[in-house]
Amino acid sequence: MAAPFRSLVEDYPRYLKSFELFLERSSEHQCMQDFIHNTLPDILASIGGGRPILNVIGVGSGAGEIDLEMFTQLHLKHPHVKVNNEVVEPSNDMLHKYKVRVSTTPGLDHINFAWNKMTASEFEKHWQEKNSGKKMDFIHMIQMLYYVKDPEATVSFFRSLLEKDGKLLIILVSGESGWGKLWTTFKQQLCNTEISQCVTTGDIKTFFDSEGIPYRNHELLSQMDITECFTEGDPVGELLLDFLTEVIEFSKNAPEDLKKGVLDLLRHPDCSKEVDGRIIFNNNLGVLVVEP
Predict the structure, then answer these.
(1) 282 in a known ligand binding site
(2) Confidence of residue 271 (pLDDT cuts 50, 70, 90)
(3) Strand (E) or helix (H) holding 157
(4) Do the beta carbons of residue 201 and residue 209 sit within 8 Å?
(5) Keywords assigned by UniProt (predicted)?
(6) C-alpha–C-alpha distance, residues 170 and 18, integer Å
(7) Helix, strand, coil shares of the chain as percentages rounded to 5?
(8) Is 236 helix (H, G, I), strand (E, B) or coil?
(9) Cα dist. 199→11, 41, 141, 145 in Å?
(10) For helices 120-130 and 151-159, what crossing angle results, to 10°?
């Protein structure tokens, strides 16, 4: 990342605050829940091959809210099976919240949770040392490939763990979203090269196409109100700008020409639309479903 910027992920409290604001301002969780309730059940129905135990990995599961929604649908499709669930999450805070959520949610007795406080690459190393040969029925990677060094290698490893009827579910921002336009335009100035901060489903589809790997693609319509970003000094706007650029205090630290370029693009019809005087950013997600 170009100096003098510091990545937002280096300041976890500020990142968390901006992420919570993003969830409050966007329809992200709602569009995921619609997908989980309306589209995912048919995908889950096709796994398991009648086996009494299903093996699941959640990579970057966060606080587990989406995981438990998916387990509800899995149980509806496979009411008599037990589940072994490997949770992979490097954040102590998120793992704690996930464990609390599990302890206060009824009806999870059929699921065995194994807690892995580690990154995806640490888990890969751990798995190769410990579990060679074990295959998985369902693996999900939701909004996490931004934080790995090599998304293609990470996807390839987890895909290699699938049972013959297993499914790998990847959710990222869509290449056609406002994020895709922002990152394409300002990748050099904004994107952290230590991780893959600017990856979209467009990049993963290009990789799959080049390798001849078949996949199913679903676009999830989502939006985010970013109106305050355009009011100088507005604390909500500044936090949203940090989240959009993933730079700590972007509005204070960015050179004027970069700040103007980012704000102009955020307001451009390629990224946003104006609705009743509000600026609504295209936050569309892409879902990719892959088989072994």
Answers:
(1) no
(2) very high
(3) helix 151-159
(4) no
(5) Methyltransferase, S-adenosyl-L-methionine, Transferase
(6) 23
(7) 45, 25, 30
(8) helix
(9) 21, 27, 13, 7
(10) 30
Give Cβ neighbours of residue 9 (< 8 Å, ≥ 6 apart).
15, 147, 192, 195, 246
How many whole angstroms separate alpha carbon 178 and alpha carbon 183? 9
Decide if 123 contacts 116 (C-beta within 8 A).
yes
Name the nearest CA neighbour of 262 among 281, 236, 286.
Answer: 281
Burial class, 166, CB count within 10 angstroms (exposed 0-12 / middle 13-18 / buried 19+): buried
| CA–CA distance, 242 with 108 (Å, rounded to integer) | 37
On average, the pLDDT of the chain sits at: 93
Q: How far is CA 267 from the centre of its chain?
A: 24
At 3, the pLDDT band (50, 70, 90 cuts) reads very low
- 178: part of which helix (H) or strand (E)? helix 178-190
Cis peptide before 4 (omega within 30 of 0): yes
Can you read off the two tokens belonging to residue 288? 């990719």
User: Given pLDDT bands bounded at 50, 70 and 90, which one contains residue 101?
Assistant: very high
Angstrom distance (rounded) from CA 189 to CA 168: 32
Count Cα atoms within 13 angstroms, Cβ side, for 49.
11
Predicted confidence (pLDDT) per residue in 207-251, tens digit: 999 999 999 999 999 999 999 999 999 999 999 999 999 899 999
- Residue 220: its H or E element: strand 215-220
CA distance 101 to 71: 13
Query: Average pLDDT for residues 172-180, to the nearest whole number?
Result: 95
- Say what the pLDDT of residue 214 is: 96
Q: Helix, strand or coil for residue 170?
A: strand
Tell me if 28 is assigned to a ligand binding site. yes
Q: Name the residue with tokens 């606080």.
A: 63
Rounded to an integer, what distance in angstroms lies between the CA atom of residue 21 and that of residue 23?
A: 5
**Structural tokens at position 189:** 């100035």
Q: Using one digit for the tens of pLDDT, what is the confidence trace for 108-121?
A: 999 999 999 999 99
As a whole number of angstroms, the distance between CA 87 and CA 59 comes to 7
